[in-house]
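Hey, can you fold this one?
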Amino acid sequence: MWNFRDLKVWEKWVALVEEIYIILLWFPKEEIYWIISQIKRSAVSIPSNIAEWYERNSSKDFIRFLLISKWSCAELETQLIISNKLWYITEEILNNLLEHLIEIRKMISGLITKLKEND
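Sure. Predicted structure:
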């Protein structure tokens, strides 16, 4: 039986969330209620939205959740760029994370296209 955990895009997101959480350990503690909290919410919402579709079992709902996930990608990207500007993450770390985001965003777009074609 198909499961959301079988989706490569979900798998890659969970790995990215893990990487982000490790990086956030190095952020200043005074940012815990601001940027750390925002980044965590953005990062976790994406695989969560993908997983939630599984329970709804509808292509239309899944496409909606995938679109929300794409929007969350842009939100997360902005937060990571701000973190770099504030010297919380290096340019190298930022570029690595952005590469992952771009790859995942493309995967989400491809999945949306595929679902629309099959509808």
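The chain has one domain: 4-118. Let me know if you want another pass with a different chain boundary.
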